[in-house]
Amino acid sequence: MRLRRSTSTSLMLNVLVAACALILTFPLVWIVMMSLKQQSEVMTWPPTFIFTPTLENFRVLFDVAQAGATSYGTIKVDFLTPIANSVVIAFGAVTISVLVGVPAGYVLARRDVPFKEDIAFFILGFRFAPALLVVIPLFSVFQRIGLYDTYFGMIWVYQVVTLPMIVWLSRSYIEDIPKDIEEAAAMDGAKPFRIVLHIVLPLLKPGLIGASLLIFLLAWHNFALGLILSSTRAPVTVALLKLLNPGVQFYPVMAAGLVVTMVIPVVLIVLGQRHLERGLTFGAVK
Amino acid sequence: MDPRGINGTVTLQPTAGQLASSKDEPVKSAGEWRLDWWSIAAVVPAIVVLLGFLFLFFYGIFQSLTDLRFGRPLVHLVGFNNYAALIKTEDFWSSVRATLGYAGLAVLVEAIFGLALAKLFATEVFLARLMRPVILLPLVLPPMSVALMWTTMMDPQNGILNYLLSLVGISRFAWISDPTTAMFSLVLIDVWTYTPFFALIIFAGLQGINDEVREAARVNGAKGWATFRYIELPLVAPYILIAAVFRLIESLNQFDIIFGTTQGGPGDSTAVLSVRAYIVAFQNLAFGRGAALMVINWLIVLVGAFAMVKLWRFVRQRVS
């Protein structure tokens, strides 16, 4: 049932929504514009809204060979390596988390194991662990056992971000699947392993893909772990912060870097809006 | 049409059910024992991976009781000396104030704006249905990208925000470059980023309210505001609080946005505990002292989260 509204009220509400949407999108639009500007156009006052777009900033960002021969002088940027690092670490972390976390999520949803709720909470609790409290001791441990600045070490550390979420989310998605189906299959004599493989997994697929997208996003977001535990294997978020150092005249290149890091999340919204909503709200939104 | 509006069954029950411990006693038959070994085998890898972090967590607490510095070969247990030294400094208390102020203010403002945004989008006017995915936008961006994005926009010399302010006749604002306005600017960034989090959860709460309840209120003569104040608000209050629990924990731990914009400055006006811990541990190389700061941060998070969960349980009981 919906309220009947007068045309003027409805118009006003639409205007309000448009204003909110503008506030939420304007910073991104502005950054995209900035990334397409020339250095001189960024330094002007008042800021310009109309300009001839250039891809020069993206070239500076990625063109390692040409470094030094740009309008920005001798500032050397290598943005491709951090992106590759982020992709490797995020994919690695997601793969491990899915392999380790989904079985745990299934058991915590369906089976009677001792201390089930305690285990579930123990696992979710890590989502809110203060990262630095773990990372400060980890720094010395990693230096000692030689895991500092390795993909292996980074992928393991990222589990503190991705694993709790995938356990929690896959558990919540599995609870949505009616239990009757599994019970009926068990009645017909199917082995538990076959039930999971042939009945639960196909039903779980969309949710699982959504949850994987979300934890990929969380891995992509992470900054503090990479800042402290890596140097040459640093993720793209750490590389971004370095682009800030040269100062205002370098803003267009940094904007180009920001655009690159923001493209993937925006694409993910298009792919799986509902799953992201569910994941980002810890399952409160279904 | 937005499919969510039609079949989106949106209730807090699953979350609430997960948060409340299950009461049903496990009934085991002899045949299920073999199966349980499978179950345990499925859970153990996840727990083992995470136990490593638990060990590190305790190791961190242990480090906070030592005088560990980077490169120092001999480490002594110093008991609570790190803590005792910390609470004597004015810097520490300003960090505590910054942490509490940042998180408290951000969560409060986000709750209010989030409620307004959710109400607005729940009207389901044409644009509200069309613009639904836009709410999600700030949440999916890396916090570091958000921080740097706002840094460029808040530039006092030629940032776009000061230009927009100049259009309405306000002269240059210092934003993050002045100690008196830096904290306000950071809270503004946090509010822009995480108001949608509240909006999404509260929106789910509003959708869960039975239309009959609203209808009954209207039949009894309740006007729009009264329906909101006495019917909707109490019913969505648990949603607001659960969102506040999550956000409070994360803003008390906030590192990326503050480190990406001010790195604790100017002066130490925005040096929240986590940022100060980073500086102490990795720039001054006093690991023990840094760990002590993080332990205190963790205790604050624990107390804050516990209080909020208590409040949430209390409100939820009153509603149901």
From TrEMBL, chain A:
Membrane topology: Multi-pass membrane protein
UniProt xrefs under PROSITE patterns: ABC_TM1, PROKAR_LIPOPROTEIN
Any one Pfam family match given in the protein's UniProt record, by short name: BPD_transp_1
Subcellular location: Cell membrane
SUPFAM superfamilies per UniProt: MetI-like
Segments traversing the membrane: 12-33, 87-109, 121-142, 154-174, 195-220, 250-271
Keywords annotated in UniProt: Cell membrane, Membrane, Sugar transport, Transmembrane, Transmembrane helix, Transport
Hydrolase in keyword set: no
Keyword Transport: yes
ABC transmembrane type-1 domain span: 83-272
Protein name from the UniProt record: Multiple sugar transport system permease protein
Species the sequence originates in: Bradyrhizobium yuanmingense
UniProt lineage: Bacteria, Pseudomonadati, Pseudomonadota, Alphaproteobacteria, Hyphomicrobiales
